[in-house]
Amino acid sequence: MAYWSGGPSGWSNDRGSRNARHADDWVDYYAEIYNWKLISRFFPFIKKHKKRMYFTIISMLIATIAAYLQPFIMGIGVERISDSTKSITEKSSELNIIIILLILTTLITIIAQSFQRYNIGFIGQNILLDLRVNLFKHFNRLSMSFFDKNETGKLVSRATSDVVVLQELMTSGFLNGFGDLFGLLMTIILIFILDPILACVIIATIPILIIIMIFWQQYAAKAFIRVRQAIAIVNGSINDNLSGVKVVQSLNRQNKNLDDFMFVNNRNKNENLSAVKFQAAVIPIIEFLSAVTTILVLLIIAIRTNNQSLNISEALGLATAFTLYIQRFFNPIRDIVMQYTQLQRAMAGAHRVFEILDTEPIIIEDKNPIELKEASRISFDNVSFAYEEEQEVLTKINLNIDKGETLALVGPTGSGKTTIISLLSRLYEVTSGKILINNHEIKKVALQSLRNQIGLVFQEPFLFSGTIYENISFGKKNATDDEVMNVLKSIGGDNFINNLPNGIHTQIAERGQNLSSGERQLISIARALLKNPSVLILDEATANIDQVSELMIQKAIKVALKGRTSIVIAHRISTIELADRIVIIHSGKIEKIGTHEELLKEQNIYSELYKILHSQ
Ligand SMILES: Nc1ncnc2c1ncn2[C@@H]1O[C@H](COP(=O)(O)OP(=O)(O)O)[C@@H](O)[C@H]1O
Ligand SMILES: [Mg+2]
How many domains does the chain have? Predict the structure, then answer.
């Protein structure tokens, strides 16, 4: 599991030092091209296509049998035709049979292969579809802490490129490997039937091939890992440069970044070249071995013809059949060398895809969850929390929020305000203590009902691509236009909507860039309110709003808070003043709780903030 603990991610452009350190984590796993345990993980996915799979395997067997019979038939054909003891008419009738047999086997091979290809493609594509859907579902089940540890870019590549490389494994690698193996078996049987002595010559090359393959595999595994790391670093560099393009351009870092990129890109090229070099070296060795075997076989045939243990026509027949079989014998080995990187990449991809699917969410729903009909009273009972072990972010938080009460959380950045509300929505699990809503511990409450009761508005209103309507009705399927419009109206958002060409069905540009910050925030407030949640949480909802919009949002918030139990995190006095009580948080501890008046009477962060703002 080292991979998920922020290990060899490769998403950095620190020239790979971070990746090199984790290189060891990669080695064991990715050295294998056929990891049967991993391959067996696909069986449940294949099961759905059982009939088609049998059909495919039968097609493959038929295609292989027909294809591998051909050298045998050709050998016999050549032998018969060159037999000088036979008359022309005898020969031509035999030749006819041979030709018909060859045409027949070719047709069978072609037809069976196209069945095999289509069906394996069909099964492969369906498995990929299932895998992607499973991944997508699983991503949405996983807990926030998982996403803290895994960058989005990396996860996207899991669901896209890693799944795609699996296609190669399923369409070419997997069944071809099986077909090759079966073909090898057929070759061995047929050459023994043809001539056991010559067959032994071919069999004798097997140990040599095994030695070459072991040697090759060891090297290739390492080369492959270096290639993977190099490309990961290139990706990371592109990723960093794109996501930080504003900073890059404003600081005139373009040239320096290009230098860095050239460096990692060059290294990637060199790693690839050295892997290719070795491949280029191994192929001739195999070709050489194949040539030597052919020469040996022909030599033995010649010797045996000389000492009359074979006649000319037998010799010609055997020579034809064996040259063809030697070709076929070495082909699969050549294929493995040529496709090695693809196979290994597919295995690595499979490993990572299943690793995600195996990751259990930390937040698990109770077996008999309580359905929360309403959430009015909230209490934190001695709640402590740490994102990472031993680094406590919240310490013994005790807090009661009454029905309909508005509570403001005030404190410096990093004091733990956002963490408190994340715990309440159960995006994270408390380390110790309890959070209760209406006297039910939130661990026992059905997750969906808990989150339905809580409306959240963040500092950065996240807008999805789509229309305004789609963005607002995001949490409530089948909401009518009127419902959406009414919510907007209630918070004063109908004005700007009416000025848009298509009203609430206007498309939002990427991340809402065709709207002002205030309008975006109105949309996200409307989204939170549409479900009519009994609890409303605003996390610095006014922090990024321009002066003009502030009044508009302020009004919206006032409406939104009415009749709801609310927690507002804010730096603006105007927002804090809306609260019934104010909680001052410092370094994960509650420093003070009181009303606006009470807190102003003494020295604390709030009274200081208030004084600063009012002295201006
Ligand atoms: N996802 C996270 N993983 C690890 N640490 C975090 C995470 N989110 C916040 N923290 C840390 O927890 C502390 C409290 O953060 P936060 O609750 O966001 O503070 P606030 O909202 O008051 O600014 C900070 O020290 C912050 O670095
Ligand atoms: Mg915060």
Answer: 3
